[in-house]
Design a protein that fits this description.
Keywords: Membrane, Transmembrane, Transmembrane helix. This is Transmembrane protein. By secondary structure, this protein is an all-alpha fold. The protein has one domain. It has helices at about 10-45, 50-65, 65-75.
Length: about 80
């Protein structure tokens, strides 16, 4: 029996279990913001450098990490 309706979207246990991992990924996302700023600056200085584009894409993935971690944890725990 689900507490939030029939579609089973509410998973508080998954949310609580995912909080420590989300905190670690939040710290990684802060590192990603710094990498992203440096990468954008370098790509403005030398737009022909393809390795900077890869670094910026990696930084964007790090920035999105907390949301991905919380979504993954809440999907893995049943109602």
């Amino acid at each position: 029996m689900c507490c939030c309706g029939d579609d089973c979207q509410c998973r508080p246990l998954g949310f609580l279990l995912g909080l420590p991992f989300a905190f670690v990924s939040l710290l990684l996302s802060l590192v990603g913001v710094v990498i992203w700023i440096v990468g954008i600056t370098l790509s403005c200085l030398c737009p022909c450098c393809l390795c900077v584009t890869v670094i910026v894409e990696l930084a964007l993935a790090l920035i999105k990490a907390p949301f991905s971690v919380m979504k993954w944890f809440t999907e893995k725990i049943p109602c």
